[in-house]
Amino acid sequence: MPCKKYVFIRKFIERDGKLVLISLGKEIGPLNVSFCINDVAVGERRLNLSIIQNVAVTCATEIDPKETVFGYCMIVSVIFLAMTVAIYSSFSNLRDLFGKSIISYCGSMAIALALLAIIKLMAYSDMSWCAVRGFLAYFFLISSFFWSNAISIQILLCSRAPALFSAKSSFLWYSLYAWGCPAVLTICMAIVNFHPGDHAKPGLGLNHCWFANESQRWYYMYSVMSVLIILNMCIYVYCATLVCQKPFSSAHIKEMRYKLWLMIRLLVLMGLFWIFEMISTFTEAHIVWTILDVFNTLQGFLMFVVLVVLRPRVIKTIHQRGLFFCMSGIVEKCLAVVDDAEDECIVHTEVAMTDK
């Protein structure tokens, strides 16, 4: 069985000439893959011993050069998302309800992209760890979309009236929503994945670390993303209608406009490129879709631009701490001509992470 790279499966049985995996005491399969059974030496480093073990050997999925490019783009995104998290976490005036939600969103996306980059760039040899990486990537990726929806809900509530609860208690409720729902979805998907039967399984850890085809992605991932993106769009349209029809004071109008513009940028970054990726599953491969996929994998850099570079409040905070060094003069001139609408907004939910 000639292959460039191999996968060694230790827990398996052979039934009627087909491979059946054993995971958590349950049978998975039979799998429609070519394989052979061989004895390999498994080393024990601490005892300096080699144990001969019977394993199933099958071909690892070859890495597409295009997927390699996507993997490195994801690493770039992870770096910029980590920088965004570090900046928002370092300054108390940025750790309001919105800021803590941004930290959670960027952190979730960073972990998801890091795991997906590992899946794309590294050949797998242990299906158990492969499944763990796949389910963790799914959990954090879906969590980032729930956090985007939580941010949209916050903007909607802040644009209408002061918060009824303290920012601390509100963040706990948002956290329960944005972390709890993905956890439930991930657990349900794991049950479906490892339950014996011929139903449509996600396939994570079943000779693949990630969803093997478009139908699996639509069943378990794109469907959830689509619902959340549509909800975010509805919130934006509703808020835009409020601005156009309701007679607010000038200060309130300015606050609403700032929040709406922020929603537009977040909606584009969090949803537009994913929508293009979903559309591409119904069409043939084309260079346009590849370019859009590259932008999607670079959304961490785009998020950094919107949430740090283009947000005067963040730049002003960094400048006041003297962290721009030799660029302080240029930054000060730019801040002098920029209209910081946030400073004129009435913020109802600002609170630090600590109770000090």
Helix content: 55-70%
List the secondary-structure elements in sequence, H or E.
EEEEEEHHHHHHHHHH
Question: In the CATH scheme, what's the topology name of the largest domain?
Answer: Rhopdopsin 7-helix transmembrane proteins
Oligomer: single chain
CATH class of the largest domain reads Mainly Alpha
Low-pLDDT residue spans: 43-49, 345-356
Tell me the CATH architecture of the largest domain.
Answer: Up-down Bundle
State the separation between the terminal residues, measured CA to CA. 64 Å
Largest sheet: 3 strands, antiparallel
CATH superfamily of the largest domain: Rhodopsin 7-helix transmembrane proteins
| Order of the strands making up the biggest sheet | 1-6-5
Counting helices, strands and paired strands, the structural category is mainly alpha
Q: What portion of the residues fall into strands of 2 or more residues?
A: 5-15%
Keywords: Membrane, Transmembrane, Transmembrane helix
Transmembrane segments: 69-90, 102-123, 135-159, 171-192, 219-239, 260-280, 286-310
GO molecular function: G protein-coupled receptor activity
InterPro entries: GPCR_2-like_7TM (IPR017981), GPCR_2_secretin-like (IPR000832), GPCR_Mth-like (IPR052808)
Briefly, what is this?
With 356 residues, the protein is mostly helical.
Task: Characterise the protein shown here.
This protein has 356 residues and is mainly alpha-helical. It folds into two domains: 6-59, no CATH class; 65-344, Rhodopsin 7-helix transmembrane proteins (Rhopdopsin 7-helix transmembrane proteins, Up-down Bundle). It has ten helices and six strands, in the order ββββββαααααααααα. The protein has helices at residues 65-90, 97-121, 127-160, 167-194, 214-245, 250-280, 287-297, 299-309, 312-320, 328-337, and strands spanning 6-9, 12-15, 18-23, 26-31, 35-44, 49-59. Strands 1-6-5 form a three-stranded antiparallel beta sheet, with no helix packed on it. Strands 2-3-4 form a three-stranded antiparallel beta sheet, with no helix packed on it. A hairpin with a 4-residue loop joins β5 and β6. α1 (65-90) runs antiparallel to α2 (97-121), α3 (127-160) runs antiparallel to α4 and α6 (250-280) runs antiparallel to α8 (299-309). The longest helix has 34 residues, at 127-160. The radius of gyration is 24 Å and the shape is elongated. Residues 43-49 and 345-356 have low confidence and may be disordered. One of its GO terms (biological process) is cell surface receptor signaling pathway. One of its GO terms (molecular function) is G protein-coupled receptor activity. Residues 66-311 form the G-protein coupled receptors family 2 profile domain.
